[in-house]
Structure formats: structure tokens, C-alpha cells
Amino acid sequence: MWLVLDTFTQEMAEGYREEITFQALGREQERSALVQALLEGRLAEASMWDAADILQIPLRGSYAVIAAQVPGTGRHALPQAEAALRRIGVISAWRLLHDVEAGIAWLPAPHAHPGPLADCLESFGTGLVGISPRYEDLRHTARSLRLARIALRGAFGAQRVTVFDRDPLAIAAASAPDVMQRVASTILAALDQLPARDRSLLLDTFGAWLDSGGSASQAASTLFCHPNTVRHRLRRLEQRTGRSLAHPREIAELSLAFEIDRRLAAPAVIRTATDD
User: What pTM, to 2 d.p., does this model score?
Assistant: First the structure.
């Protein structure tokens, strides 16, 4: 009798575990399907309440869509994202697509900016990530996914997380790759006559100067050289490109060309027909 009772107890426990696993998988599949429906804009307004309840995302507030480049088909880009974001008060739901891992994030403050969200993703992720502008209606999720994908195209090794409305130059550089490549080639054409090392040196110096707010001294500290060396390189850049750093419009043109050029030199982001 003890043997029968022990066997019965084990079978009952095993059946209970299987049922719990089945229910958990069912809930996860339901959540995943709902996230995809939101990302594709296929949910009717009447279904938004049910979707928000199942996803445990508030129906009112501010949202942002995250698009993270996957390391390979079927592989997660940010497997720990949901738990990590919850620690900073951000509630999220995720769906693994064939080219990106997409997340819908609810931001804790009514007018919150995705900046803290970007900082959190950058702190634990290693891949490229794009974040859409903030929006306030879950029905606009599909449109925001498109903007997140554009932001993802603007990300590269030195700037792994790009926020659509925080990095306008990066977005401009990535929005129309063919056109932007032509723009950069036109502005920086004379630099192509230089040895690759000299070309890179001039552009890196210009980038450091931009990051330093136009200060040759601060740029020199970053580059470990003398401020006069920075000024000399910038004069060479002006002479080569025919654009003066004393004119705001011409600085803007060089800045855009610089952002385009350094993204062209970085490994390409996976693109699909759904990006455009």
C-alpha cells in the first residue's frame, strides 16, 4: 500500500507540474501573440483593454517601442530586458521577430523621456538597439515600431543605443541610406584622396571637437595631443572640404556627413523589406 501510495503521489505531482507548465506556456504564447498584434496594428480598439490586462501594461500613460538587433534568427537580443527594466519602474512585453526583438515599454512618468530606458538597455545589452519616440496611445504601436527600426539603423558600435528623438543627426544619417551616402560622398570627396590613416585622423579629430562643444583644448585632452594639433587638423579639414567651422550651416553639413561616414564604416545593421 505504501508503494502504491508513493507511486500515486509521484504521478499526481508530475501531472500537476505538466499542467502548470502547459498553462505557463499558454499564457506566454498568448502574450507573445498579443504583442505581435499590437506591433502589426491588428488589434481593434475594443480589444485594447483585454490586451493591456493580459500583458499587464497600463492602458494609460506613455509608451515607447524598442527594436534590438538579434544575433541570429531565433536568438534573443535582450533576454533579461523585462526583469531589468522592471527594476527601474518600466513595464514591458516582448516579441521575438525574425530580424529584431521588439518590446513595448510603459514609462512610469506621464511625460517621461526614453533616456533612462536607453541608459538601462545600454548598461546590460551588447547589441544594437533603437528606441521610438514616446507615444500615448497603444493603437500607434505599429507606427512606433517603424520609427524604432529607423533608430536601430542609426545605431553602431560607438553608439549602440539610439533614441529616435534624442539623436536627430543619427536618424537623418540612417533614414535614407542611399541618399545619405551620396550626401556624405559629396561633402567628404576631397578626403578620399588622402591615405586612409590621415582621412580617419581628420574625421576623428572633428568628431572629438564636436563632442567637446567646439573646444580645441577639450578635444586635445580626449585625443592625447596638443590643442594646436587639433586646430591644425581642423584647418586641414576646412581646406579639404571647402567648408568653414566658423559658419553654422557649414558645420551642420560637415556634422551630418561625419555621422553618415562613421556609420558606413561600421558593421551593417540587418535590414528587411519591412524597414521602409
Answer: 0.73
